Amino acid sequence: MVKEKDHIDHLSRDNGALLLGKLAIKYKFITPAQLADALAIQEAKIAGRKPYLGEILVNENRITPAQLDVLLLVQKAYESRQLDIRFGLLAIKNKFATREQIDSALQEQNRLFKKHRRIQLIGDILVASNILSGHQRDAILARQNRLKITHDVVEDPRIAANLASGAPENEPLQIATGIAPIPPRDATITYHFDTDPLKVGTLKKGGAIDFKSKGRYSLVTEKSVLAEKIPAVAGVPGKDITGETIAVPEPRDVTLQVGKGAGLSSDKLKIIALCDGIPEISATGKVRVSPELEITGDIGLETGHTDFEGKINVAGTIQNGYRVRGNSLRAGEIRRAEVIMTGDIVVSGGVIGATIKTDGNVQARYIHDAAIEALGDVVVEKEIIDSRIQIGGACILNSGHILSSRIAAKKGVIANEIGSEMSKSCALAIGVDENVKQKISDLKTAINQRNDETRVLGDRLDPLKASLDELEKKIGIKVQRMDRATVEQRTCQKKIESLAHAADDDEAAGLHGRLERLATAIARDEQELEALFNEQDRLSGLALDIRKKIGKIGAEIDELNSEMSGVIEWSDREKGIPEVRVKGTLHAGTTITGINAFVSVKQDMHGVIVRETGPPEDGGREKGTAGKEAPKHGMTIRPL
């Protein structure tokens, strides 16, 4: 059995009433002499009632109420610990558990207490680890007189009457009831526009994409309500038949995320359109309002690169070597171009040799020799060949083929056929979202770059501030000197006027000479002061420009942090699906990597589901809280 290392286990067990006092001495809340005084007061009784030791220590100002709470918690943990050690001995004696399992459960109990300051009974830990059944736990607790049913118990006469009535044994009598907890309600968002990413080019029965049925865009006007948040509602704890509280989890909150053209209402519960346009939502839930750009032909030599913060509609082809940036895109074809979007991309033809990055979904008739990174789904009608696709959603080819490609899809892969006898093998990664990791890494890099820019600008601003401070001092000194010269001018002028009728021509001549020198000095100081003011204006302008840049970068950092928080929240909410569904043939040589498992297909298979099974996390050998080895992860293959 585990030897207790905690200091409280070395305390005397001969008198439980002394435990709290010894703990108070151990934690240096009181001295032994103060404990002796408190025990003497306790023995003397007060008004015929023997007060609690903790009550006396608080009343005598020996400890604070907060310190008493700590002592009572540790005392309860110690007493419960002693009972649970005996609980473990009984479990071992009855061969319900091994000594190693009991030791591990006691260690887990100690870890949970240190982490949460909450006592969890060893029996509950063993049941949660599937080592004991609930009946075995309750049997040991009953043996220890610790299973006390206290809530809403049926009166004894009713129980006796039921037994005397000879009721059938298969008709149980309810002798106690608890109070069921009311579960929490998570926060939700209601959208007031069509958020279906497959609206433009809908999926027909059988998996084909109807690119002719493009539907109609939702158009909104300024101040329209685009989305509303329904706040979370906390649950209500219940009570079991022993009177213990049944806890409920905290409800999950969601964050309203806004992009360009949208803003939050004053109560932060609505997203409002800030302009007229087309409302859109990214795969991560960011809502924006976009203007629309119509290109009737190709993006090529005539148009050049296209960078437009809105919805881009290209009737023709995005040609080789051109770059397109925007919110969302619809095009006839994309050929060896670079496309970067924050929303959905719908291509009525094919994607050939292109590099695509988007926070939304991608639809196309076929994809050849392309590199695609998306936070949403990739939906293809015909085939994906010689391509690298990394997405946070699902890769869907309901009636199509995947050949010679590497695909990482957090929500799995659905295809009619994967691989062939002649092509290179396909490599699939499912259930994980490397794209989100890369997105978060890119955002962190961008934030760090902006912070570096801010520091560089700050380094430029500091000497400007010092120069401006020095200029202010020089200007102050210059102004004071000119003020004194001006005062002296007026004094000399008055003296000259008083000597106008006197015969002292020498003194008058001296005063006139002094006036001339003062005028020359003031004129020179005015020129120097003007130069100082000009330099001050120049440096102030430079400092203002830098402060504006710092402010702009600060706003960009806030936006990047908001975007990163949104991506993380969305990724945590959207759980991975480690699954591959193949309606036709899954060819030999295909490799499938899950979150914690891997399989290489050795022979052709028809109409199968490949799915990772096992514990949800922590690797192939997951240690339970009481040391029980959990089932290992693996890949199962079964008929579709």
Overview of this structure, please?
The structure is a single chain. The chain starts with 18 loop residues before the first helix and ends with a strand. Strand 10 and strand 11 (286-290) form a beta hairpin. The model is unreliable at 1-14, 197-205, 211-216 and 617-630 (pLDDT under 50). The chain is α/β, with parallel strands linked by helices and 640 residues long. The longest helix is centred in the C-terminal third of the chain and has 69 residues, at 505-573. Helix content is 37%, strand content 24%. It contains ten helices and 33 strands.
Helix content percent band:
25-40%
Q: Outline the low-pLDDT stretches.
A: 1-14, 197-205, 211-216, 617-630
Outline type: flat
Question: What is the strand tally?
Answer: 33
Largest beta sheet: strand ordering: 14-16-19-22-25-23-20-17
Count every helix, treating DSSP H or I runs of 4 or more residues as helices. Answer: 10
Largest sheet composition: 8 strands, parallel, barrel
* Average of the residue pLDDT scores: 82
Radius of gyration: 40 Å
Structural class: alpha/beta
Taking the alpha carbons of the first and last residues, their distance comes to 50 Å
Beta-strand percentage?
Answer: 15-25%
